[in-house]
């Protein structure tokens, strides 16, 4: 077959002089252009924005050159981003979902919470927030259920202790913010469920203990009727997430953690569509005896680091000030609070 263009000698585009072979080298483009764009940044720009944007411009220009991105391809990308924006609202975050399917949220989670110490013990591992958290989940009594109007499903009792990861001491006044899907795989804001169904906040007493009833989680597909779904299809991938329950655990003076626990028996543990599974977050739901309200149970302790210890052991993450901003009730948009929670906002 003689039509295949080699890496070095591709067919000639319009306007190319006859006989001149195109050599595919990124350095055949204007060598000064990218630096010129970066240098237009003004003197009032903050050091962090200056650094991050210079890097972003450099990488995205290199990406365009290396892949010889055409105008049509770039416009397809622009339309993809615009569509994600149009689809996003108070109850759906398509931009975040697109980041999730390319592993970006999980990578940023790893970077944000990296433990560089060689401590014997470590705080509970973190996992992505995901697009379905709500800042205004109701406070519920310890031991109550978060399940409303759902007779089906495997009702489950979860209990444990929130403790200091170094001393093992229980933490009083720790708050657990928990949420998961209904048996049909949908979060309450995705359909007509009772408002705040399958989510709630619990506060520990002196013994640091928590307990509540929920459902044993099931695996579910992330919404694939938008750009994130299109991307998955382009990449020949499935949209499934392994069964999980989301938690944000916070306490005064402690660095909050955003995490998920995963059911060991789920078939999608090794191929989570958003790459969030960590070994230490895989749990065993056991049969529960003698409780008419639940068929399964789970015991799971959460280990938090104080801001002081986190600093000492180089745990990167949200500052104390940002964490406290994220736990105020009601005020500010959900996205704003989420950004504060993960320490990503300036
Ligand atoms: Fe989820």
From TrEMBL:
Q: Which CDD domains match?
A: 1_2-HQD (cd03461)
Identify the residues that the record assigns to the Intradiol ring-cleavage dioxygenases domain, covering every copy: 129-305
Compositional bias ranges of the Polar residues kind: 324-338
Q: Which cofactor names does the annotation list? A: Fe(3+)
* InterPro entries found in the cross-reference section: 1_2-HQD/HQD, Catechol_dOase_N, Intradiol_dOase_C, Intradiol_dOase_core, Intradiol_RC_Dioxygenase
Q: Which UniProt keywords apply?
A: Dioxygenase, Iron, Metal-binding, Oxidoreductase
Write out the GO biological process terms: catechol-containing compound metabolic process
Residue ranges annotated for the Catechol dioxygenase N-terminal domain, each copy included: 47-114
Top-level division of the source organism's lineage: Eukaryota
Protein family membership: Belongs to the intradiol ring-cleavage dioxygenase family.
This chain's protein is named: Aromatic compound dioxygenase
Q: Which organism is it from?
A: Lepraria neglecta
């Amino acid at each position: 077959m003689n039509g295949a263009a080699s890496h070095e000698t591709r067919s000639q585009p319009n306007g190319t002089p006859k006989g001149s072979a195109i050599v595919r080298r990124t350095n055949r483009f204007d060598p000064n252009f990218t630096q010129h764009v970066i240098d237009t940044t003004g003197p009032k720009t903050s050091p962090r924005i200056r650094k991050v944007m210079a890097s972003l411009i450099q990488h995205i220009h290199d990406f365009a050159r290396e892949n010889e991105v055409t105008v049509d391809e770039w416009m397809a990308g622009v339309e993809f981003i615009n569509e994600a924006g149009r689809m996003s609202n108070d109850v759906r975050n398509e931009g975040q979902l697109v980041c999730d399917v390319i592993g970006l949220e999980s990578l940023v989670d790893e970077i944000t919470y990296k433990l560089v110490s060689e401590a014997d013990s470590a705080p509970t591992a973190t996992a992505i927030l995901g697009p379905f958290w709500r800042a205004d989940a109701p406070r519920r009594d310890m031991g109550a259920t978060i399940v409303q109007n759902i007779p089906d499903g495997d009702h489950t009792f979860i209990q444990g202790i929130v403790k200091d990861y170094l001393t093992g001491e229980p933490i009083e006044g720790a708050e657990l913010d928990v949420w998961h899907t209904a048996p049909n795989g949908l979060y309450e804001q995705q359909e007509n469920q009772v408002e705040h169904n399958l989510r709630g906040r619990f506060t520990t007493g002196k013994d640091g203990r928590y307990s509540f009833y929920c459902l044993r989680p099931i695996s579910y597909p992330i919404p694939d009727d938008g750009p994130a779904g299109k991307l998955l299809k382009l990449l020949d991938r499935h949209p499934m997430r392994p069964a999980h329950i989301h938690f944000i655990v916070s306490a005064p003076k402690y660095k909050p953690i955003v995490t998920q626990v995963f059911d060991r028996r789920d078939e999608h543990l090794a191929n989570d569509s958003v790459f969030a599974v960590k070994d230490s977050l895989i749990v065993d739901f056991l049969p529960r005896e003698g409780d008419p309200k639940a068929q399964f149970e789970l015991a799971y302790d959460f280990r938090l680091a104080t801001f002081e210890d986190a600093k000492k052991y180089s745990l990167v993450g949200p500052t104390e000030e940002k964490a406290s901003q994220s736990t105020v009730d009601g005020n500010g948009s959900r996205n704003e609070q989420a950004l504060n929670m993960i320490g990503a906002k300036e």
